[in-house]
Amino acid sequence: MVCERMEKEIVIFPLPAMGHLNPTVELGKLLLRHGVSITILIYESPSIDSKHIDSYISRVSTAHPNISFHRLPSVSLPSNSESATFLDHFHLTIPHLKDYLSASSARAIVLDVFFDDALEVASELHLPCYFFFASSASNLAAFLYLPTLHNKLNASFKDLGDTPIYFPGFPCSIPASDLPIRVADRSSKMYKAMIVQYERLAKSAGIIVNSFKSLEPIALQAIAEGDCIPGRTLAPVYWVGPITANVGRHKDSNNELRHESLSWLDGQPSGSVVFLSFGSMGSALPEAQIREIAVGLERSGQRFLWVVGGAPLQVANGSSVLTNMKEPDLDAVLPEGFLERTEGRGLVLKSWAPQVAVLGHAAVGGFVTHCGWNTALESIVAGVAMIAWPLFAEQRMNKVFLVEEAKLAVEMRGYKGIVDATEIEERVRWLMESEGGKELRARAAAAGENGRAALRKGGSSYNAIVEIVRSVRIADSVGLRTSDER
Ligand code: UDP
Question: Which UniProt keywords apply (predicted)?
Fold first, then answer.
C-alpha cells in the first residue's frame, strides 16, 4: 500500500545564484503557507560561488526548517571543457534530476527559466512543470515575443545599432543596442537556446513571475491578449511579486546584526541620503568611472552612502548575498583627499551593504541603481525614487520600464559609456533638490504600498499563490501523476 503524504510536495529547482535562489526561497516560503511542502534542489558548478550559496542555505535551513534542501550529485565535465558554463553542468545533472524526481513524492516542479531542458523530464514523469521567471513582466513579454521577432527579422540585433525595436509589453521602442548580450547574435548558441527556451515556457503548466499586477499594466495586457505569442496559446501566468526579502518591513526596522551603514544612517536627517549601489557585479565599474562618481558626489553637496565594489556577500538578516568579488583599494581608486573632505556627509563601503535594510531606512531619499530586477523591486517596495544607471544583461530593458512606464526613476543619460562627474552631480542634485525630483520622490513613496497590498490576504499576488497550489492539487487529483509511477 502506498502511504499518501498529507502535504503535496513541490520541488523547486533554482539557478544557484543569489538573484535567482533568494527569490525562489522566498517563493517557497509563500507556498508553504498553503499546505504544501517544499524541497529546493541544488546542483554544483565550478562557475557558481558555492561557498556563499552554502552559507545562505545553512541560514535558511536554520530559520525555516520546513524548507528542505537536497543536493544533486556533483558532475564533472571532460577536462578539455575550459569554457564550460553553469548550463553545461546543469545538462549533465539532468539524469540525476530524473532519478531524484522518480523516487520522490513530488507533485509538481518549479524550474528556473534557464533549466527549460528539464521540461522533458517532467513530462516523462507526468509531473506538472512550472517556470519561475526572476525578472519583470515586461521582459517576459519581450522574450516570449522573441521567436516571432526572429522570423520577422533577418539581421542580428548586434548589427542594428540604435534601430528601434518594438516589443509587446513595453511603452516605447528599445534601441537594438540596449538588448541583452545573450540575444545580440542570432547565430550564437545562446540566442538559439533562448528561442527554444521561450517556446518551452509557453507550453509549461504555468509561468510564475516576480512582479505584481498593478505594477506592469502594459505587459500584463500584452500577455493576457496573446500579443507576445500570436496564434498560439500561452501557459497560465501567475504574478506573485514583489518577492523580496523582508517585504512588509517598515522604515527603521530593527536588524539583529546592525551593519555599520545602518548605524551611520541613523545619524542622518530623514530622506537626505543618496544611496548608490551597482548590484552583485558592481566592482565591474572601471576605475575611471569610480573617480567620476566621487567627483560628482563631492560637487553635488548631497549626503551619500556609496557601495563602490561588488562583494563577497553578506548578511545581516539572512536575505541578501552576492558573488565573490575582489574588494577595491579605495586609496588607489578614489581622488586624493576625497574621503577626508566628505567625512560626515558621505559613507563609502568597499563591497557590500544590507540593501533591503538600507532602502528601508528613513534617512534614504534616493537611489542610484544598476536596475537589476530584484533591486528595482526592493526600491519600489521601500518607496525610494531611483536614478537608473543600467550596466548589463536586461538592465537596460528594466530602465525603460522604470523610467518610461512606472515613472519611478530618471535616467542617467550617459549609461552607455563612462558617465561624467557633471552629469552625476546634476542628476543627484535634480533628484534631491528640484521640484521635479520632489514629485518623483513623492510618486515613489506612494508606489510601495501597492506591492505590499498585492501580497496581503486577498491581494492579487496572494491569490496567485493560492491558484498555483490549487492547480497542483487539481493536476494531482486527476491523476496526472499516479502513485504507481513513483
Ligand atoms: N545586494 C545587497 N547588497 C549590495 C548589493 C546587492 O544586498 O551591496 C542584493 C540586492 O539587495 C539584491 C541582489 O543583491 O537582492 C542583487 O540582485 P539584482 O537582481 O538586483 O541584481 P544583480 O544580481 O544582477 O546584480
Answer: Transferase
